[in-house]
Amino acid sequence: MKSYGSYAKSGQESNPNAVNEDGTPAIRVRIPKKWNKEQFALAEMMLGANHIRVKCADGITRMGRIKGKMKKRVWIREGDTLIVTPWSYQDAKCDIIYRYLKPQTDWLRRNRFIL
């Protein structure tokens, strides 16, 4: 009887800890969705009460609000790379959607998504 436990193609390993050819671990990075008006930002200053001053990729400094599902789960510090969504009715404010870890930020710089 045929075993259906492995779905890997012939010659490939089904390893959840994937490694590139050069031995570095494969990194999966979330990219901002342009159709959803998401963009990169850099956390500049903590303002308190779940608000952060961020410098967005379009050059505008906005006041970012940490979304409710990120509030207690993700800690954001000054200098972190973020994904934000500007508000449609107040251009000086935005919602913080995602925070990148250091290896993810390094990958974004290496692949020229951010400077």
Describe this structure in words.
This protein has 115 residues and is mainly β. The chain has a domain at 34-110: OB fold (Dihydrolipoamide Acetyltransferase, E2P) (Beta Barrel). 8% of the residues lie in helices and 30% in strands. The chain has a five-stranded mixed barrel with strand order 1-2-3-5-4. The N and C termini lie far apart (54 Å). The model is unreliable at 6-12 (pLDDT under 50).
What structural class results from the helix and strand content? mainly beta
Regarding quaternary structure, what we see is single chain
Report the order of strands and helices.
EEEEEH
In which order are the strands of the major sheet placed? Answer: 1-2-3-5-4
Helix content: under 10%
Round the Cα radius of gyration to an integer and report it. 18 Å
Distance between the termini: 54 Å
Beta-strand residue fraction:
25-35%
Number of helices: 1
Query: Mean pLDDT across all residues, rounded?
Result: 82
| CATH C-level of the domain at 34-110 | Mainly Beta
Named CATH architecture of the domain at 34-110: Beta Barrel
Give the uncertain stretches in residue-range form. 6-12
